[in-house]
Structures are given as C-alpha cells and as structure tokens.
Amino acid sequence: MIRPLIVVAFVILFSVPAQAQLDQLEKRIGINDASGLSETKVASGLKQALQVGSENAVKIVGKPNGYFGNQAIKIEMPKDLHLLESGMRELGFGTKIDEFILSMNRSAEAAAPAARKIFIDAIFAMTFEDAKRILSGDNTAATEYFKQKTTGHLTDAFTPVVKKTMQENGVARQYDALTEQYKNIPFAKSQSLDIDHYVVSKALDGLFYELGEQEKQIRTNPAARTTDLLKEVFSHAAH
C-alpha cells in the first residue's frame, strides 16, 4: 500500500482541485469500489458468500440421494453405453442397469464432502482483483472461478473416494458383468469406458451445477443473503 499512499499525498499537495482528483484516483487504484464499499468489505462479503454457497452445495449433493434424487445432476448411463442399456433392458436386465446407475450416484454422493476443504482453500487464496471481477460478473462468475481454481484438486480428491466406494458398491463388477452379458447379444459391438473417470467427471459437473444454483440465489434473492454483510455487499452490487 506504500505506493498508492505516495500518489495520494502527491495529488493532495500539488493539485488545485485535490479532492475531486483524489476521488478519481481512489477509484482507479481500487481504494473504494464504485459502490463506495471498502476493499476489505467487498472481499469479505464475497468470500462469505462463496463460503455459504459452497457449504450449501456440498451439503446438498453429499447426502443420500443428493445426486440420485436430483434429476438435474443424476448420473445416468454414459451416452456411449445407451445402446448397451437399451439392449440389456430388452433382455430383462433392467434391474441390473438400475442397480448400476444407483451405485454410480452413491459413489458421487460419498465423494462430495471432500470438496469442502478444497473450496475453502480457493476462497482464502482469492485476491481483491478476483473478488471485484466476480462481484461485477454474471450470476455464475464465482462458480466459474471455482471451476478454474479447483477442478484439478477436486479430481484428485474425488478419484480415490469414487474408486473405493464403487468397489464397495460393486460398480466395476456390475459394469463388467453388464458388458460381458452384452457381448453375447448377436451383432453387439464391444464397449470400453473408464467408468471411474466418468463418475468423477459427472460428480464434478453436478457439484458445480449446484454451486451455480446457490450463487444465483445469493445474487438475485435477498432472502438468501443470510448475514448483514452479504445483504450490504450484494445490494450494492445489484445497483
């Protein structure tokens, strides 16, 4: 902060319309944002919003039926396996397909809580410039920030949990059994898929979807701003 203070002092000492120029200078160097809120308040308000939103998102998806019971993020059979699915259902293996789909979703639900610490770390690493960009961005600007900053870490954290849970739920075994049975269908083509990677990818898609929904609520619905700080920062941002 030393350099901005020197510039401010220079303006005060050597300019005639000092206050007017000081106001403009403060805006340019970021001492106050356009709404008149301080840097600290803007950054604190946004970080609080991100913490509230991310906590809510993790709680929503990381509970029983958090994925499976939510049609917007439910993990379905991979597109590449739709032919396998329809063929197996026609042969009377619909129950096996349903068990497989349920197991994939249960694995995602088990992995979701690992996102909490990663999100918190990303919030603490946020700069004031990040905060200003997010605050003035669209309704999912913070979610996009999280995607950029956390996708790699989340993938690393989710993968072992998904693998372990899918082993416990027999997902890989069920997948192998389904594909083996499918191979016995005349003219059926061989199917190959990294099922662990698929479930992790879909789990992250669902998590970010729910995070985006939480962010939209905080930005557009005053009732979702559960603290005085959130109310102040986001009411200014809306104007």
Concise description?
The chain is mainly alpha-helical and 239 residues long. Helix content is 72%, strand content 0%. Helix 3 crosses helix 10, helix 5 (94-111) runs antiparallel to helix 9 (171-183) and helix 5 crosses helix 10.
General description of the model:
- The protein is mainly alpha-helical.
- The chain folds into two domains: 1-31; 38-237, no CATH class.
- 72% of the residues lie in helices and 0% in strands.
- It contains eleven helices and no strands.
- The protein has helices at 2-14, 18-29, 39-61, 82-90, 94-111, 115-124, 128-135, 141-169, 171-183, 195-220, 228-237.
- α3 runs antiparallel to α6 (115-124) and α5 (94-111) packs antiparallel against α9 (171-183).
- It is elongated, with a radius of gyration of 25 Å.
Identify the notable features of this structure and list them briefly.
2 domains; 11 helices; disordered N terminus; mainly alpha; 239 residues
Topology:
Layout: H1 2-14, H2 18-29, H3 39-61, H4 82-90, H5 94-111, H6 115-124, H7 128-135, H8 141-169, H9 171-183, H10 195-220, H11 228-237
Helix pairs in contact: 1-2, 3-6, 3-7, 3-10, 3-11, 5-8, 5-9, 5-10, 6-8, 8-10
Strand content: under 5%
Q: Would you list the SSEs in sequence order as H and E? A: HHHHHHHHHHH
Instruction: Give the count of structural domains.
Output: 2
What's the end-to-end separation, in Å?
A: 28 Å
